[in-house]
Amino acid sequence: MEQAVQQGRCSPRLPTFRRQQGRLVGVGDTLGRDESRPLGYADDASTPPSSLSLNPRDPDTMRRPMQLVLLVALCCGPLAAADLTPDQVAFRELYRELIETNTTLSSGSCTEAAEKMGARLRAAGMPDEDIHVLTAEGHPKEGSLVAVLHGSDPDLEPMLLLAHVDVVEAKREDWTRDPFKLIEEDGYFYARGAVDDKSMAAIWVDTLVRCLQDDDRPPRTVKLALTCGEETAGAFNGAENLAAEHAGLIAAGFALNEGAWGVLDEDGNRVMLTMQAGEKLPENYQLEVTNPGGHSSRPVKVNAIYQLAAALTRVSRYEFPTHLNDTTRTFFEQMGAIRGGEMGAAMQALAADPEDADALAIVKTDPTYNAVLHTTCVATMLEAGHATNALPQRATANVNCRIYPTDSVEDVRRALEQAIGDPVVKVTAMPVRSQVAVPPPLTPAIWGPIEATAAEIFPGLPVVPIFQAGGTDAPFLAAIGIPTYGIGAYFLEPDLGHIHGLNERIGVDSLYDARDFLFALVKRLATAPDPIP
Fold first, then answer.
1. pLDDT of residue 216
2. Is the pTM of this model over 0.90?
């Protein structure tokens, strides 16, 4: 099985190149080149290409200017399009087309992106009956793509590859570069959606294209779903629609999704690869106080703004109970060893004993770690009054909560009421985005292939499970019985590639490495004979 995964016909691993200690080295070359030789040897060469050196006494030096330029470019310059393998060139063009298709809610069209990606699958040989561009009534530009690559073993449950193609709004005047043009500069791809989430969407489409072109059907059926609406709360959500209206079409034993990435330190060194297994539910609550109001020249003690402010102060002081699940316990155990020091020791102590108050106090000082320990609520918006010279008749606040899977939306609403302790303050749960999802199981059937693929593509790098404080579309799949795991494999600096912000970017090499990793992972999972997860 291992040999089939590494050298299967589903697009053989053409040589890609990665910079290492100032030089380019071949990676994943299965075409027969002797990898013990330096790059630049021919397979049958007996001597290194020393004739390409800049030797003024060599009479052939000046007769080979293009060879010299190429050598310098390979050894010293950044990877350019000319250095890419044919399959990387094809992927880059697919990625560019998806990036340059505007999919913002205000002026773009996810349906157009779905149609373009469907056309690429059709051109690669996928039958029309396996390509579905789906739109809901009243949402003509918010379409989804579902595609099915049928496997050879009907007894294996399908796997689903999920990604969203909608992106956060981006204003050209705010960006250094055009956010809707793929620009390669200084070793990065810049564009809105360069990371979130068109990198994954492009890799998933490319994976199926490569399998179709090689006519290599894995045992397990592989399904693809590209959806819209993930980025905008309250907007039409394609994943939710597919789960509600097309559950049979996307039915699968498990799914791979966004929600995790590789971590780089401040110096650009790889620290770890993460895998998401579970997430908190984002939910908004409105706090509202109403009064009769009156003229500001005759103030009274009962003031809607003061009452609301007092309520928010109490919310700020309230802490929900701490919880650990399998994912967070494993995370603190493994991450504690990586981090070291007082914080690392506290993380490991907490993983061993969740009742360790001293360890908990230390871990909670880090906002990132604190966020995955329990439900959190924070005030995010205020609105009050109707005139500068009038007592406020109404004051409202939005409190954004991230709900731990052990709590419910109603549990949190009641907890906020109790923390406020003032019946004048009305607490209302706003429309729910999805239901609280139980974290998927961390079984050897899913964890083993991820670790094995990481060892192949990123030797020696630890894989650490994470529980997301943010939200993805995974809960919509969980609601119909599809355990969903986040696995990105692109490595990001501490600024996370400016996701959702100005000048979003992803490392060029990082994107190609992620493509290698995710393709190999899909192949390994699609050929696994056992049930997953």
1. 85
2. no
